[in-house]
Amino acid sequence: MSRTPRPASPPAPGRRFVRATRALETLRQRSSRVPGLRHLTGGGENTPDIAIAQGLLASIMVMVGSWGVGWIPSSQESLLARAKVLLPLRVEMLGVIVCTLLLALGSMLLFRAWLRLRQRAQADEANPVAVVAKSIWVWSIPLLFSFPILSKDVYSYLGQGRLMHAGLSPYTEWVSQLPGWFAQGSDSLWAESTSPYGPLFLMYARFVYFVSGGVPEFGVALMRLVAVAGVALCAWAVVALARAAGRDAAWPLWISVANPLFLLNMVGGVHNDGLMVGGVLLGFVLVLRKRRLAGILAASAAIAIKPIVVLVLPFLGLAMVAANAGLGAKIRAWAYTGAVAGAVMALLGWASGLWFGWIPAMAGAGSAAFPYAPVGLLGMLAGWIGSLAGGDLWFIAGIVFTFFRLASLAIVFWLAIRRPAGPPLLYAGYALGAAVVLAPIIQPWYLLWLIPFFALSRRYPVNWERALYILCLLVLLSGVVDQLSIGQWFSLLAVRLFAAATTLAYMAYLVFIDPKTASIFGADRRRPLRQGSN
User: Three-state DSSP class for 306?
Assistant: First the structure.
């Protein structure tokens, strides 16, 4: 009699668990080798998503902190100046201290996330350019909902739009000439200064003031659209220029656009400088692609936003000719570039009714000189010494300012005519650098104008990078400490000292103690900085 075979007994639960675990581990190891699946399977502790998440948390901290100590006008038209939900953050000492702490620590934590992003992106197999681009937008989203931080220039933009709407020229009239200007949020430093902006931007400022009806929150939101467009344009142009030069685009994109100083100033601070720099970089992209007319038009639009970048026009012309081209070829390129740019500025001048008023306004800029700008300090010192002998302080200071402006123009001229010509993009950076250093006023974010030009032009040693990181940290610290909006019933000095102590303590931790970042600053030689310039 045949025996019916017994069915095989199922494996013990323990065996099933071991087999499943082994299968999952094998799948994880295989999928981690595929760049697109590495993040989904948790492929190692070096995934860039961790740094991006840390930066997102930091941006949220900055956003909430700005609700208590960010800039908001006191005008009757403001929707949020007296909002009950914000009062505990702005009028109570506990709220001000907590928001100051969030702003200071959030800014420093964002800087740490930025440093760690580079390290993690290098160790990861994913597309580093996509990783850096993702970080830019993830970190920017909370800043869209922040009050202006690190500067309140956006209210000066709106004030100049108000001037235009009233039929006055910002090149000859001042924001303070209209009643209620202080309550509108404009900085008193710029209240009696002519506008440094071009006719295109001033027309947009007028449009924003008209559409917003004078409500500052609506005006800030519309100005922030321009700021975000500048970030997007800079990101695209940096990648395009790096790839045109045959270089990896991740490092220039990381050090220039993903830089926390850039994002906090452009998106959080609502500045138009990103659109200005992005327009110049776009001009070089188009010229390199043999679309010369379009390139000059892009650069002209940047000049019509902020005329200081007119200094790059000679180098845009040099990008159209060979490095060893003769003077005749250069002159023809410059003539073509100047004619197109001049026609664009004339058209915009006619449309705005301001014509070429930006030229004397730019030449006379500096009446609001900052004392920590070397030339501004030197000019005011000379003026003060002259005033002791009966001279006019500002007249004497103006002579000093004019001398150094002419010196910067001489440097630009020499850079343009030297033969063989240097790299046009790099020399454009040198020209802007000369204009910044020799100007009577230096704003902290002017450093951001220069970084893309240098980052795209050559490879720098580790020591240069370390110096830049320290400089960015110090500039960020100065902005956090100096630009705090608190009520008059609080001690501004005490709050600033608290912000300074908090920020300096975190800086010291990053530079000397943090095992993940100290090596970047040379504090731990056992973990040297990995090169990422290429």
Answer: coil
Q: Which DSSP string corresponds to 396-417?
A: HHHHHHHHHHHHHHHHHHHHHH
Q: What is the CA radius of gyration of the chain?
A: 27
Tell me which amino acid residue 217 is: E
Contact between 96 and 89 under an 8 Å Cβ cutoff? The reply is: yes
Q: Which two tokens stand for residue 100?
A: 């100051």
Q: What is the rounded distance in angstroms from the CA atom of residue 112 to the CA atom of residue 280?
A: 30
Question: For residue 281, what are its two tokens?
Answer: 């970089």
Whole-angstrom CA distances from 284 to 154, 207, 428 are 28, 29, 10
Cβ pair 224, 230 in contact under 8 A: no
Contact 129, 239 (CB under 8 A): yes
Please check whether residue 62 is in contact with residue 107, taking contact to mean a CB–CB distance below 8 angstroms. yes
User: Quick one: 84 exposed, middle or buried, by C-beta within 10 A (0-12, 13-18, 19+)?
Assistant: exposed
Question: Which residues neighbour 144 within 8 Å (Cβ) at sequence distance 6 or greater?
Answer: 224, 228, 267
Angle, helix 128-143 to helix 93-123, in steps of 10 degrees: 170
Place of tokens 């005329």: 307
Residue with tokens 């142009």: 237
**What is the C-alpha to C-alpha distance for residues 100 and 501, in angstroms, rounded to an integer?**
11
Distances (CA, A) of 148 to 118, 269, 323, 427: 28, 5, 44, 33
* CA separation for the pair 486, 91 (Å, rounded): 8
The predicted structure's pLDDT at residue 126: 65
pTM of the model: 0.84
Q: Using CB atoms within 10 A of its CB, is residue 208 exposed (0-12), middle (13-18) or buried (19+)?
A: buried
Pinpoint the alpha helices (H) of 33-92.
35-38, 48-69, 87-90
Identify the weakest region by mean pLDDT among 2-16, 99-113, 390-404.
2-16
d(CA 297, CA 142): 33
Q: What is the C-alpha separation between 340 and 283, in angstroms, rounded? A: 13
Angle at which helices 424-437 and 447-455 cross, to 10°: 160
The whole-angstrom separation of Cα 398 and Cα 329 is 37
User: How far, in whole angstroms, is CA 155 from its chain's centroid?
Assistant: 18
Tokens encoding 148: 């202006």
| Residue 231, both tokens | 């970030």
- CB neighbour class for 418 (10 Å; exposed up to 12, middle 13-18, buried from 19): exposed
* Concatenated DSSP letters of 109-170: HHHHHHHHHHHHHHHS-S-HHHHHHHHHHHHHHHHTTSPP-S--HHHHHHHHHHHHHTT--T
- What DSSP state is assigned to residue 177? G
The whole-angstrom separation of Cα 168 and Cα 531 is: 53
Average pLDDT over residues 405-424: 87
Max Cα-Cα span within the chain: 131
Query: Which tokens go with 306?
Result: 């902020």
Per-residue pLDDT tens digits for 482-503: 888 888 888 889 999 999 999 9
Average pLDDT score, the chain: 83
